[in-house]
Write a structure and sequence with these properties.
Rhopdopsin 7-helix transmembrane proteins
Length: 402
């Protein structure tokens, strides 16, 4: 019995060599992602004002952080024990977590794209309020739960043949039960279908958003701003016309986050005079026109700044979406090829297996990259991180000099 266990250990160490690239790759992403997502959670939870922007980033940040502290360590353990993984409950739970987080992240990106579409393309329509944004995030988590429930049923301890015909190993994979391999194929096909549908919807939404941004970028003095995150019942349009410019209440703060601000009334040529007024406000007298004209340049400048921040927020979420799908493309391609050609991996050389078992985990890049994207597009996030370390440095110096 002792010699058999020793033989399995030796075989496991030999088998694990082809996964060393994957272990190093996932470990680096895990370490960087842990630090980056921790900064995201601290800054957006305690230093940012309430907004849809903040809600969505916190949801993505929590999902990414859980992946870094639970999902990735499990994958490393799995790769280090390709023949000796024996804890079935851990296999089921952790496979479920990885599927759940992937599904929840993709669906959250759909909600974000819908929110940006409403604010950019339909600014005078009903907007997603902060309460509605929270409810949609909860709905996303529930749908992700429904999508992921087959994972703990299908996954478990699978028998693995070794180079010794008298010894079999065990690893976390599809359980050795009748028809489970077939059901696993159906499950993966469903997930791929969901990914494709999400991708198509996101492409359509961001294409429409891009068209509006390009259109307004070419119109001097026109700005695109976020609507307040509530129903549009508090505004009304006067001088009805089909050619309505998108002039709304701005909802961005210095970080690009959405906060309510009033946008000064803007005037168009008489033939297309449209402006937004508060439902309960009164029309100004002629004597106030001079005062309003004096403030028009300042209001226009403020409106343009709001527009720039709104565009930057949209580009930030677009970048997150692009990185998410680009990180999954190599993984999905390799999985599809492996499923269609069972001899694809076994026929590889040792070096080819190392490369394959490294890049198969590239989808974890999206769990690490978001914090860097926030640093590029969100100036408030970047400044808050700098302030945090400046304060820590000053505190450290005070302790040294005491």
């Amino acid at each position: 019995m002792f010699s058999k266990n020793l033989s399995i250990t030796e075989l496991n160490l030999e088998e694990a060599k082809q996964y060393i690239g994957g272990v190093v790759f996932v470990a680096i992403i895990m370490a960087v992602g842990f630090v980056g997502n921790l900064h995201v959670l601290l800054v957006y939870a305690f230093r940012m004002k309430p907004s849809n922007h903040r809600i969505f980033i916190l949801v993505l940040g929590v999902l990414d952080f859980i992946t870094c502290i639970v999902g990735m360590p499990f994958i490393i353990v799995d790769l280090r024990n390709p023949l000796t993984f024996t804890i079935s409950p851990a296999c089921k739970i952790l496979r479920f977590i990885n599927y759940f987080i992937c599904s929840a992240s993709a669906l959250t990106l759909l909600v974000i794209a819908t929110d940006r579409y409403r604010k950019i393309c339909v600014p005078l329509g009903r907007q997603i309020s902060q309460r509605m944004a929270k409810m949609l995030c909860l709905l996303v988590l529930f749908i992700a739960l429904l999508i992921s429930w087959p994972a703990p049923v299908l996954y478990g301890l699978a028998t693995v043949q070794t180079s010794d015909p008298n010894i079999n190993g065990t690893r976390c994979y599809t359980e050795d039960k009748e028809n489970f391999a077939k059901y696993q194929g159906y499950f993966n096909a469903l997930l791929i279908l969901i990914v494709v549908v999400c991708f198509i919807v996101l492409v359509v939404l961001y294409t429409l958003i891009w068209r509006v941004i390009v259109k307004h970028s070419g119109q001097k003095g026109q700005a695109i701003t976020d609507r307040p995150e509530e129903s549009s019942s508090n505004v009304q349009v006067t001088n009805n016309t089909t050619d309505t410019f998108e002039m709304t209440s701005g909802t961005v703060n210095s970080s690009g986050s959405d906060t309510e601000e009033k946008v000064a009334r803007q005037f168009l040529p008489p033939e297309k005079q449209v402006y937004v007024v508060d439902k309960h406000s009164h029309c100004e007298d002629d004597k106030n026109k001079g005062k309003k004209t004096g403030k028009s340049k300042k209001a226009q400048r403020h409106h343009q700044q709001s527009s720039d921040r709104s565009r930057k927020t949209t580009f930030m979420f677009l970048a997150i979406t692009v990185v998410f799908f680009m990180s999954y493309v190599p993984h999905l391609i390799l999985k599809i090829v492996t499923f269609m050609n069972k001899s694809f991996v076994p026929q590889m050389s040792f070096t080819e297996k190392v490369v394959y078992n490294t890049f198969i985990w590239c989808f974890f890049i999206n769990n690490m990259a978001n914090s860097f994207i926030y640093g590029v597009f969100d100036s408030r996030f970047k400044s808050e991180v700098k302030n945090m370390y400046s304060n820590l440095y000053r505190l450290a110096r005070l302790r040294v000099y005491r």
